[in-house]
Design goal:
Length: about 500
């Protein structure tokens, strides 16, 4: 249940994530009636902004990126909500900021009842430790039941630094107060993977190495690095996307059925998958991992610059904007089934999908020539856009001859349901309610780093010779095709 009084404190309130996602999500939650009447949204940032400017900034965010339109149709509702907004300017590394913040929260909060407080750390990673320590020292994390904070990724840069960060966080707060966010887990279609697998009797019996040939997970984006060069240069596709979003998808596809939908039970089953991933040895990195960086190219008919020409990016940058990885899950269910993961910026299309490729039938009884177009069954779980599920199977082509042709059966989210809430709405509401099921536990984060660390280390040691190695607007470097060709397979064209 939602507590009757809540204060949401956004660190980095003047930043990109607050504007694009957090503020629109909060307003939409309010409009849907999910937030209590006693709610305060307090922005904290280094930037000078008077309270009216913060209201204007928030109105702009909600209007352009939310589901309601505060400037126009929704002006009255917005007026009521905007009274709950306030702003505290301050340096997040200065204890004095927290003394002021504490007083401010007392002042704007409800009298009598102690509100629940969610501190959202939408800040550069180097600030996280300092903010949490300062919050604790100011007594703002004292109430283990009511005070919690949300940490954005990247959570460390490798297993060692993630452990180190955890030592600091758990030295000052309780694990139950730490919400490590991976916004992919809040996407409706990602959550639907669990419903699809574990609420239907039909698919689970064929969900293993006996029937599945291999699995492909694609998260392609058309955007480039935009104005995030400063962050991205130190991250790259492996840290920015694979370590978190793609490995989460892998966990959901490959996990065993949970006994109950309880936070720890689901998370235990996911960690089991990561632990079963066969460690990539340094000698094998070049066989199982491919990196790429986009050069200039054309996207939808327009010329777009190469990564090295983007703002705040080094002229000889070795940062990868594309990564592909072949993983194997060493357990009973998945023995010998490769999982191919790929993600990249400046690809021809924005698509996130999981494609489960089944084995061919054991014996083809049809007359010769009938099955020239034969393609094994494929199940595609489409996460975005055009959310849905597609099953490819063979049909007989109408006519006098027995000729087979692959056809598709489709389920479309849009047709069946209303527009789903944004992932950030779901996750913010969970954080408010204190439900951590869709957040990451420390051991999950660490296990995910252990999967990618050997690759990152090998890549750091031998900078790429031929970057950029794919043109913007293409599906990545040729080496990524060879990764599958070596196994006699190819990337499937996203549906
Ligand atoms: C973020 C990454 O976590 O996910 C970005 O930092 C990426 O680089 C984004 O663009 C993609 O999210 P979505 O929801 O648009 O698929």
């Amino acid at each position: 249940t939602v507590p009757s009084a809540v204060q949401l404190i956004l660190f980095g309130a003047a930043g990109d994530l607050a504007h694009r996602k957090l503020i629109p999500a909060l307003y939409d939650l309010h409009r849907e009636g999910h937030l209590p009447d006693e709610v305060d949204v307090v922005g904290v940032d280094l930037q000078e902004m008077d309270p009216a400017a913060f209201v204007e900034f928030s109105c702009d965010a909600a209007d352009s990126l939310g589901r309601f339109f505060p400037r126009d149709a929704d002006a009255d509702n917005w007026a009521a909500f905007s009274e709950r907004l306030s702003y505290v300017q301050g340096d997040a590394t200065e204890p004095e900021t927290y003394a002021r913040l504490g007083e401010h929260l007392e002042k704007v909060g409800p009298k009598g009842e102690r509100p629940h407080r969610v501190f959202y750390l939408s800040v550069a990673p180097f600030l996280v430790e300092s903010i949490v320590k300062n919050l604790a020292e100011a007594g703002l994390l004292d109430d283990v039941e009511r005070d919690r904070f949300v940490v954005e990724k990247p959570f460390g840069r490798d297993a060692e630094s993630a452990r180190q960060l955890d030592r600091v966080l758990l030295g000052t707060a309780d694990e139950g107060q730490v919400y490590r966010i991976d916004h992919y887990l809040g996407k409706e279609t990602v959550q639907n993977l669990l419903a699809f697998r574990f609420a239907n009797a039909l698919f689970e019996p064929v969900w293993d190495a006996r029937y599945v040939d291999h699995v492909q997970i694609t998260v392609s984006e058309t955007v480039g690095v935009e104005h995030r060069g400063g962050y991205y240069e130190g991250a790259g596709a492996m840290r920015d996307m694979v370590q978190n979003h793609l490995l989460q998808l892998l966990c959901l596809v490959a996990m065993e059925p949970p006994v109950a939908f309880k936070a720890d039970e689901v998370r235990n089953k996911k960690v089991d998958v990561l632990r079963a991933v066969r460690p990539v040895t340094r000698e094998r990195v070049h066989e199982v991992a491919v990196r790429g960086q986009y050069g200039e190219g054309f996207l939808r008919g327009e010329r777009v610059p190469g990564y090295r020409e983007e703002p705040k990016v080094a002229k000889r940058s070795a940062t990868e904007t594309y990564a592909a990885l072949k993983l194997e899950v060493d357990n009973w269910r998945w023995h010998g089934v490769p999982f191919y993961l790929r993600t990249g910026k400046r690809m021809p299309r924005r698509v996130s999908e999981i494609s489960v490729q089944f084995r061919p039938v054991p014996h083809r009884a049809f007359p010769s020539g009938a099955d020239e177009a034969f393609q094994p069954n494929r199940l595609v779980l489409r996460i975005q856009p055009d959310e849905g599920i597609v099953l490819r199977f063979q049909a007989k082509r109408p006519g006098p001859q027995m000729l087979l042709q692959p056809v598709a059966m489709r389920f479309d989210y849009d047709e069946a349901f209303d527009t789903p809430p944004d992932a950030y709405e779901t996750l913010l509401l969970d954080a408010i309610r204190g439900d951590a099921t869709l957040f990451m536990r420390a051991d999950q984060v660490e296990a995910a780093w252990q999967v990618v660390d050997p690759v990152l280390e090998a890549w750091a040691e031998s900078p790429p010779a031929e970057f950029p190695n794919y043109a913007a607007g293409t599906w990545g470097p040729a080496a990524a095709d060879r990764l599958l060709a070596r196994d006699g397979r190819s990337w499937s064209e996203p549906l």
